[in-house]
Amino acid sequence: MKKFFKIACFIILLLIIAHIIYLHTLYDYNFYSSLIEIPIPIFAKMEEKDMHGGFHGDGETLAKFYFSDKQAKELTSNISNNSHWNKLPIPEILQECAYNSIDEDIENPFINNGYWIFLDRHSEAIDKYYYNEIFNRASLNYSIATFDIDSNVLYIYSLDT
Q1: Distance (Å, rounded) from C-alpha 108 to C-alpha 129?
Q2: Number of structural domains the chain divides into
Q3: Is 49 exposed, middle or buried (CB count within 10 Å of its CB: 0-12, 13-18, 19+)?
Q4: DSSP for 68-82, written as a single string
Q5: Is-contact 147 115, C-beta < 8 A?
Q6: Is residue 65, in this structure, part of any structural domain at all?
Q7: What's the pLDDT tens digit per position in 98-135?
Q8: What is the pTM of this model?
Q9: pLDDT at 85
């Protein structure tokens, strides 16, 4: 009976550890992959600054993914096959959304060579890719992803007000 108890405790411990690993690594990659509609390789280095903490979760997030040349080539291929991604530059109406963050700790760099996608996550959005109406609401909930071909870095910026 003691042996069974030890094995059961060991299995439960392994499941807890696996769940923690999933929550702290795989979950982020799956979340961001589904957000930008292309798979992000799990072995890409990721940095994230999450400044959400305001009233009802208001705040902003900047996630950066660093890719090897092989990963970047595959990512570029996936981007090219997705009709919602566009070649830079970002339209003027979205320049402020993409590059002027509220928090001084978050800096989304200006990119000259690459691709971008905009996603309106507001509850009143009729088309999540349509950005001309975002300033006609009392709050903003959007994400903008940019992929820098020259440095192989993907930036995903999200704002919730």
Answers
A1: 20
A2: 1
A3: middle
A4: -HHHHHHHHHHHHT-
A5: yes
A6: yes
A7: 777 666 677 778 888 999 998 888 777 778 877 777 77
A8: 0.79
A9: 94
Q: Is 150 a domain residue? A: yes
Residue 35 burial (CB < 10 Å; 0-12/13-18/19+)? Answer: middle
Return the DSSP state at 2: H
The pLDDT value given to residue 47: 87
Looking at the domain assignment, is residue 108 inside a domain?
yes
pLDDT tens per residue across all 161 residues of the chain: 688 888 888 888 888 887 776 666 666 777 888 888 899 887 888 888 876 665 566 778 888 999 999 999 999 999 999 999 999 888 887 877 777 766 667 777 888 899 999 888 877 777 887 777 777 777 788 889 999 999 999 999 888 87
Which is it for strands 86-87 and 45-50: parallel, antiparallel or unpaired? unpaired
Q: Of 42, 23, 24, which Cα lies nearest the Cα of 33?
A: 42
Whether 97 and 144 have beta carbons less than 8 Å apart is answered as yes
Q: How many CA atoms lie within 13 A of 53 on its CB side?
A: 4
The residue assigned the tokens 């992929």 is 147
Q: Please indicate, yes or no, if residue 105 is contained in any of the structural domains.
A: yes
| Bridge partner list, 158 | 61, 143
